[in-house]
Amino acid sequence: MKLDVPADLDVASRAAVALHVQRLVFAYRPRSVRLHVARPATQTSLSVLARVHRLCEALGTPLTLTAHPWRPRMATAGARHETAGVEPEGGAAA
């Protein structure tokens, strides 16, 4: 399971995000959780990380923390495909 935590969480959002992650983990029981915390990490985003860490530890689910968002190969390949052959503004004249 791959999840992104935005850096600009306030206290109310922090609780909502932590609860949402908890529900996802309990519902799907993934083999592992990969959590991306946007930079710069704030106290609220680190609080979500701490709650997710405790949850995963209690369930025996490995947790990976990343500094880079998850981008599946097919999504990035699709983005390259969609922009292939498109010239930037001011490109070569015909």
What do these coordinates show?
The protein is α/β, with parallel strands linked by helices and about 90 residues long. It contains 3 helices and 3 strands, in the order E-H-E-H-E-H. Strand 2, helix 2 and strand 3 form a beta-alpha-beta unit. Helix 1 packs parallel to helix 2. The longest helix has 18 residues. The radius of gyration is 18 Å and the shape is globular. The C terminus is likely disordered.
Number of beta strands: 3
pLDDT averaged over residues = 77
**Biggest beta sheet attributes:** 3 strands, parallel
- N-to-C span: 47 Å
How many helices?
3
Low-confidence stretches: 78-94
Shape: globular
Biggest sheet: strand arrangement: 1-2-3
Helix fraction, binned, reads 40-55%
Question: What is the secondary structure topology, with strand pairs?
Answer:
Blueprint: E1 2-5, H1 11-28, E2 33-37, H2 43-59, E3 63-66, H3 73-83
Parallel strand pairs: 1-2, 2-3
